[in-house]
Structure formats: structure tokens, C-alpha cells
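Hey, can you fold this one?
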Amino acid sequence: MPKNIEPRLRTIGAYLELEEDVSFVIPEYQRAYSWTVDNCDKLWQDILDYIDSDSKDRYFFGTVIISCEDHDTKMCLIDGQQRTTTFLLLLKALLLRVNTAIKNTRNDEESESLCRGLRECRRTIMKVLYKAESEDIPDNPNRDIDAEICGNDNLLISLSINEDDEFKSDLSTILKAADFSEAETRVHQIKYRQRDNRYTNFFRNFKYFYEMAGTLSDTRLKNVAKAITGRCEVIEVKSWQVEQAISMFNSLNSDGMPLQDADIIAAQLYAKASHAGVSDQFNELWKELLNLTGELDKRGIATIDSILLQQMYYERAVRKEIIRETGSVDVTTPGVRRYFKDINPGLLDQPIELCEKMVGLAKKWIMLTDYPLAQVLLRFNKNAKLFVASYLYRFDEESLSEEKVRTILECML
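Sure. Predicted structure:
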């Protein structure tokens, strides 16, 4: 088995077409599927503009970083899960429109070329989405045969602890659906939300692509499908060491791209935990931390990134990193990502200990927000949070009480 980095320039069709026993996997620490209709609209318009340009060059959709695991049967998406998931939704939407176009195309000599092109698109997409053999795919849509082919849903498996468990199945539900109506009926609907907001990003984005593809003529539909699978490309970078793959991910995404600090830190911590054989324990702790910060976010108190920031301030204070050699106070503050990755990377070597500290801090914030005095303070002085957080480290959860923090809260007020 090769152990070096393997970069390859591949068409979207070739990148997505996996062997029978191989699947894309979204690792535990990855973020939830967060692309919105706005992201999909930009992708769609970029594709149409590219086709309209009549360019002879291929269209490039960036780099995908993969960690190969379990004898190369798991293609763990270290970077590229948002695009990969979106491409699958786009291809499914195109497949349904191509099926309709084939049914509606006249069976005469004038339409023969168009029909042949549409059938080629159908066969190409079904081979990608369902790992089907070319000879097993009928030229014309057949609900029974197609349903059997669409039953193969092991193309992408999400282990992300950031994605709501009940929503993870939406991608599979959409890919298995015989038509749009079936997908719409079977996907999850979120309680207390109205119209399209009651659906997950998976279905909203799929619906957008389905509607956009429905505005195309049959010829343009064929051209779009052929361009996406055969003329659009990514650089697929495979690594056989997860830490190496994550290191590449961090390097490629250190230039201001819109990734949260928590995404980068979680990837590093997961790699360290996996290397130490404590990945299951880390996953449980990180999931608990996300649940706690999710509740704090609803209360307008903290997010996962702000808890990381508070932890950074605490670590710098404990290690007296704010004191220069001359004895003066260093008032400069590093970014969270730079601090944990570059300035004090040793903290990441203890993923369980670091997570336990942040879980404890989040729990104490939950308790604090129930105190009336804290509610008043945080309503009128949000800048007090860092000072209060440092004080919370004096107590464990069992010993924390409103009386013990009354003095600091009154002083802050």
C-alpha cells in the first residue's frame, strides 16, 4: 500500500465513482452539512457561466483532502465534505430531470441524437451515485429496476457528531427516492418551522437544484450534466496517515477561509486522541461540549469558539505567558487557532484533559446563567464574560453557588 501523499487531478465523475466496497466517510469531528441555497446558487451559476463561455479548459472546483483508512475502503473527507455532499445532491436532481426528459423526448430520427445523449448522462450519473454496472442500467427509466439500483446507498457515510443524528439519513433518503415527490415526502421536517425552513439543508439544496434544472431545455440539461461529470475537476489529495492529512487541511485553510477555530482545533484533537487510542472517549466529550455550547448559544452567552477563547486566556494566565521577561505585561493577544496550534501545541497532546476543562467551564456557565445577578450583568455588560470565566475556574461544578460568585458579579456591575 502506498504511504506517500497522492495528488491527482480528477473529473467530478471520476472522483465520485467509487469501487463497490469503498465509501466516502465524514469523520466524527467534521462540521455538519452547512451549505445553503446561496452557496448552491453560486455553484450553479458558475457552472452555467462556464458552459456559456465555450471554454476548452476544464473548470476547477478546488482541492479535496482524503485520509485512506481500513485498507482503502474508507475515504475519510478531511477537506471537501461540503462540496462532495453538494455534488451528490446536484447529480440526483439532474438524474430526475434527465429521466423526465427521456420520457418526454419524441422517438423519431430528429430526436435520436438528443435522446442518446440523455441516456448517456443517465447511465453516467447512475454509475456514480449507485455503483451500478453499465449493462445493468436500462436506457429508459424503469421504476422497478431503478428502485433496485437506487437501493445501494453506501456512497457516503456521516459519522459527524456535529450533525443531528436524525438528519444524517436525509442524503440517503434523497438518493434512494424514485422521484422528487417521494424525496419530499420522506425527508425529515423540523418542528415549528414554516415552508422550506422546515427542511434540512440537504433537501433545501436538492430542491433548489431540481427547480433550476427544470428551467433548462433538454439539450442544455444534457450539456450541464455532461460538463459536471466530465469537464469539472478537483485535485484529489490522498494520504495514508490521518495526522498528515489533517496537517495539510490546516495548512490549506490558514489563509482566511471561512472555517471556525473549533473546526481546526477539533480536527487536531481528534487526530491526537485517535493516535492515543482514546477517540471514543474524545467523541463523547466533544459531543457533550457541543450540546452545552449549543444551549449557551441559545441563551446568548457563549459558542464553542468563545469557550475556546476563554480557555486560551485561562491557559495563558496559568502559565504566566502574559508576563514578559522584563516583568511587564504583554497586552497583545494571539488568535485562538495560532495559540493552540503554534504557541502552545502541547495542550493538544492532551485532548481528553483539554476537553474536560472546557466541558466543566460550559457546565458552570449553564449554572451561572440561572442566577438573577448574573443575568443582569450579562444583559448590560457582555464584556464581563472573560473576567467572569476566569473566576469560574476557582470552583468545580459541585462547589459553585450563587453566593460564591455574588461578590465578583456585584463588583463587575
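The longest helix spans residues 81-104. Let me know if you want another pass with a different chain boundary.
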